Amino acid sequence: MAFWRSKKNQDDEVPQSKSTASNDAGNEIRPVDVQTTASQSGATSTEGSSKSSGPQSKSGSGGLFSKMRGALSKTRQALNTDIRDLFKAEGRLVDDKFLKELFSRLIRTDMGVASAEAIRDDVAQRLRARVVSLEEVLETITEQTQSMLIQESTGLQYAESGPTVILVVGVNGSGKTTSIGKLAHHLHQSGQKVVLGAGDTFRAAAVEQLTVWAGRIGCEIVTGKPEADPASVAYQTVDRALSIDADVAIIDTAGRLQTQTNLMQQLEKIRRVVEKKIDTAPHEVLLVLDATAGQNAISQARGFSDAAGCTGIVLAKLDGSAKGGVILPIREQFQLPVKFVGLGESIDDIAAFDAAAFAKALFAP
Ligand SMILES: Nc1nc2c(ncn2[C@@H]2O[C@H](COP(=O)(O)OP(=O)(O)OP(=O)(O)O)[C@@H](O)[C@H]2O)c(=O)[nH]1
Ligand SMILES: [Mg+2]
């Protein structure tokens, strides 16, 4: 499954001018340093065709799976240790007592009551009155989890033509800016021309943080003056993406303003101005959730998904979480596909979500 679209036109990859331009709205457009771009381009050409389908082909599905497994180790250990406890003897009879104990273990992963009930009922249906091994139970749970996580839409929804515009939203500290950096890097690596928009003008450090990512990646970034209207930055980012024929524009947003109402109004305004520029945009509104927040991530998400018209979820910080099970109620309650998972703080620590790999990584002994 290819999650990153391959490069549409090698000629697009011309080094940018070093100078910093200023556009009509006074927002700065900072082309990347020529050397940065040149070295990135060199890396692209030397790695040749293995780059075209992105990290899937680069690290191979085995590499990606072991990364996912590594990131989920805290959740898996907590869960497996708990479930293993149920199997002190050689096997275990699947009866009401066992099912009750299994349920209480599952719930500790923050998977929520509905998901834990569904898994417990599936185990009951398939294994009741039998003496089973730990492996048999884990296999059954893995299959059920996978079927609950299967989703129709995976990968990014691209614009039919012209730049694809992605807004990234979520509460402060959830991992928006880092996820944008990682995502932009992989898109850039797969040959796409990316422009970042520093739409979180509420904090100067946020602009700096994204600017550092743009420098590392070798892509352009549009920034505003301190406290500039984020909608104006978003508008200029799309404008820039159109004028340089970029493939993707990714716009960062604030996670916190004076009030939650202000924040939601700001996101709505950003949406409106982006749509004014390209009537099918934004093509994706990615909601970044912090996996370590467990069930709290769900309540945090609710306001955003209503106000911002989210189209998909990025579940960040899975590596730091023992509550990776939270993905199940997220899928169930939001009817939004989980598009990416954050597996660490490094530039490569992002993966396209894969239900089968996730379920296996979560429960395999
Ligand atoms: N371990 C781990 N840390 C992450 C991941 N994603 C983000 N972080 C860290 O989480 C912290 C917050 O990340 P940011 O990307 O700044 O979060 P944000 O949502 O942009 O925050 P605000 O701009 O304050 O709203 C940083 O220290 C990141 O390095 C991840 O997948 N794994
Ligand atoms: Mg940020």
Describe this structure in words.
This protein is of the alpha/beta class. 48% of the residues lie in helices and 13% in strands. It has helices at residues 34-47, 55-71, 73-84, 96-107, 113-127, 134-149, 176-189, 204-217, 230-243, 260-277, 295-308, 327-334, 355-363, and strands at 21-22, 28-30, 92-93, 131-132, 164-169, 194-197, 220-223, 248-252, 284-290, 312-316, 338-342, 350-352. The strands form two sheets. The protein has a ten-stranded mixed sheet with strand order 1-2-7-6-8-5-9-10-11-12, with helices on both faces. The structure holds guanosine-5'-triphosphate (GTP) and magnesium ion (MG). Guanosine-5'-triphosphate binds next to α7.
- Could you name the ranges where pLDDT drops below 50 across 5 or more consecutive residues? 1-20, 31-60
- Distance between termini? 26 Å
Provide the succession of SSEs.
EEHHHEHHEHEHEHEHEHEHEHEEH
Name the strands of the widest sheet in spatial order. 1-2-7-6-8-5-9-10-11-12
Overall pLDDT level: 81
Rg, Cα atoms, Å: 22 Å
Based on secondary structure, the structural category is alpha/beta
Question: Which small compounds were modeled alongside the protein?
Answer: guanosine-5'-triphosphate, magnesium ion
Strand content: 5-15%
**Most strands sheet:** 10 strands, mixed
Coarse morphology: elongated
Number of helices: 13
The proportion of residues forming helix, as a percent range, comes to: 40-55%
Number of strands: 12
